[in-house]
Design a protein that fits this description.
This protein is an alpha+beta fold. The strands form 2 sheets. A 6-stranded mixed β-sheet has the order 1-2-3-4-5-6, with helices on one face. It folds into 2 domains: 151 residues, Fervidobacterium nodosum Rt17-B1 like (Heat Shock Protein 90); 84 residues, Alpha-Beta Complex (Actin, Chain A, domain 4). It has 5 helices and 9 strands, in the order ββααββββααβββα. The two termini are 22 Å apart. Helix 1 packs parallel to helix 2.
Amino acid sequence: MGCQENPNDNTVEPGSIVFKTFAHTWHSPYCGSDTNLCAKVIASYPMVKGAPSGVGKNINDSILEFVKYSITTFQPAPGQKDITIADLVDEFFEEYRIFTEDYPDFEMPWSVEIQGKLLYQSPRIVSIEMQEYSYTGGAHPNFNITLFNFDLLKGQTIRLEDFITDQEKLKAIASEKFRQARKIKKGDSLESAGFLFGDSFTLPANFALTEEGLYLFYNPYEVGAYVLGPTAFTIPYQEIESIMVKP
């Protein structure tokens, strides 16, 4: 995330972080004449306004890194650290052109769609959701959500262990919420319902702090087959108050 070591260099005045949504749409050259041989990239995402430093720069760098990674069909080569979003869009269109030349019977458009939004913002915390949808051939499109949480006073990303003192108790609560979200009866195993947790229930890679509570999100493939889709639920703060660090 590029966070600095000294929080005093990153702290901001409450309310000084203001977001603006940036929206862009790109189409490959053949979209106007043949929609079956078309590639497109659509991106809409929040960014801290102005030319921010410290906290604001950390947030913008994280969002831009996500957007760039979502557009790349392959891992960026060494030395491409400063490559722009427009450069990556051109590379995406070029990969599509080469692919359709190699497989002339393929007549499906490629697409990448990125949608970002603020889930929650207070003088202390901001939570941002970034959605990515892409199709570049294959049996089905890919869908993924990444959640970012920033401490606006310290200039750091927030981890679960930063404010939850008992991870095992959180797992127990989250396991019951998971069952409720998936309508799995008490006593039935999660594995028999198609979910792969191994030896014990695991917390998702993605969480967010919202007005209602702690929001947990499992992407497709994270704990089950793609066909099962994502799983999301919110744990009200009053249910985890005893294991939360007070700000």
